[in-house]
Specification:
This protein has about 400 residues and is of the alpha/beta class. Helices cover about 30% and strands about 30% of the residues. It binds magnesium ion.
């Protein structure tokens, strides 16, 4: 199924105070996180494979600005058509320009820039064999119906109330038929009501995401705050610990640095306890298992392997899942040699492996005052705590 997206964007939006926006003829051109509202709206449909084209209905005075947006944001398959005074007229104009092979249209308000890909996909999935389906939210407040003199007549049963949003996903032929059959098509405020007027079968698709129509300056500020909040993500922590036996005839690697001395760590890989603890902490922060599961010491592939390889693997997983590492704090437990002079070098190396700045990596070292295996010099241990931020992928 191929879909043509129609964006009515010719409205004047008179309830929006444009005073502080000299270069914005309407609210669709005011900046939201530094890019025009309309650019957000158009971009939302760009990477959806079933969307074949986007038709924007604009007023003649804003057409050059829309062309600039299309160019600057490298938007593909966007057609620009002449908009009209009402939304219904603009959509009717755009309908005539839909590629004749396309049987489905999705009409979306230019002033709903926060529409998410998730909601668009939910809407497409809800179509079934209806003539149309529209995105909607449940009405939460208690609703009163009153007479003209404000006397309450009744409390409306909100269980069956929905607030209509866009996109509205409709069979093109039925929408066209509705325009031709109803008496006054340009008075209708959304496409679903046109379909309802001819008795077509339209459904609501309830979604949970916030998809406001920016009507006032206050709405813009809320959208700005919402995006900042959404992108801030959530902070998660991961803990890692590792211990290796120290023996003669092996190298001692810590944080990817060779530590001079007579003893080295025994291990299937290069036995870098610090990098193992960090890798485990990163996996922990993502709740993605531990390095034993990821890099089995039974697997010959990892024999003698540099532990930097494990970090790189874990980092690429973090990248893919939308995690950003913010800080790593570590403690190494080793009796000798004293690590003081090498801590900075280790921090630089770990920072390099994790793509961080040196001040985002903390390396601390302790002896065990001669106590226990570590104190006797027959083991090395390391602990790490990693702070990650999960942002939208
Ligand atoms: Mg280990």
């Amino acid at each position: 199924m191929k879909i043509s997206v129609i964006i009515p964007a010719a409205g004047r939006g008179t309830r929006f105070d444009l005073q502080q926006f000299e270069k914005s003829p309407t609210k669709l051109f005011v900046p939201l996180q530094g890019k025009p509202v309309l650019a957000h709206t158009l971009a939302a449909f760009q990477d959806i494979s079933r969307v074949d084209e986007t038709i924007v209905a604009v007023s003649p005075d804003t057409e050059p600005l829309v062309r600039d947006i299309v160019r600057q944001h490298k938007l593909k398959s966007v057609k620009i058509v002449q908009g009209r005074a009402t939304r219904a007229e603009s959509v009717w104009n755009a309908l005539k320009k839909v590629n004749p092979e396309i049987l489905w249209v999705m009409v979306h308000d230019g002033a709903r820039p926060l529409i998410s890909r998730y909601s668009i996909e939910q809407l497409m999935g809800a179509l079934s064999d209806h003539d149309g389906v529209i995105l909607a939210t449940r009405v939460i407040p208690t609703i009163k119906e009153a007479s003209w003199n404000t006397r309450i007549l009744r409390t409306v049963d909100r269980k069956r109330l929905y607030e209509a949003e866009t996109p509205q996903f409709l069979r093109k032929s039925v929408l066209e038929a509705a325009y031709l059959q109803v008496q006054n098509p340009y008075d209708f405020t959304d496409e679903a009501s046109l379909l309802e007027a001819i008795g077509a079968d339209v459904c609501v698709c309830v979604h949970e995401k916030w998809n406001p129509k920016l009507t006032t300056l206050e709405d813009l500020k809320k959208a700005e705050a919402y995006l900042a909040f959404d992108q801030a993500g959530t902070v998660q922590y991961g803990l890692g610990r590792d211990l290796h036996r120290l023996v003669k005839g092996r190298k001692l690697m810590l944080g990817g640095i060779l530590i001079p001395g007579p003893m080295g760590s025994l291990g299937h890989s290069d036995g870098d306890a610090l990098l193992h603890a960090i890798a485990d902490a990163i996996l922990g922060a993502m709740a993605a298992g531990d390095i034993g599961e990821w890099f089995s010491d039974k697997n010959p592939e990892y024999k003698g392997k540099s532990s930097a390889y494990f970090i790189r693997k874990v980092m690429s997983e973090a990248q893919q899942k939308g995690y950003r590492i913010q800080h790593v704090d570590t403690v190494i437990h080793l009796e000798k040699p004293k690590l003081g002079p090498l801590k900075h070098k280790m921090a630089l190396q770990v920072a390099k492996l994790l793509g961080l700045a040196a001040n985002q990596v903390s390396i601390k070292a302790k002896t065990m005052e001669g106590l226990g295996e570590i104190g006797r010099g027959t083991a090395v241990a390391a602990e790490a705590i990693v702070t990650v931020r999960k942002v939208r992928p």
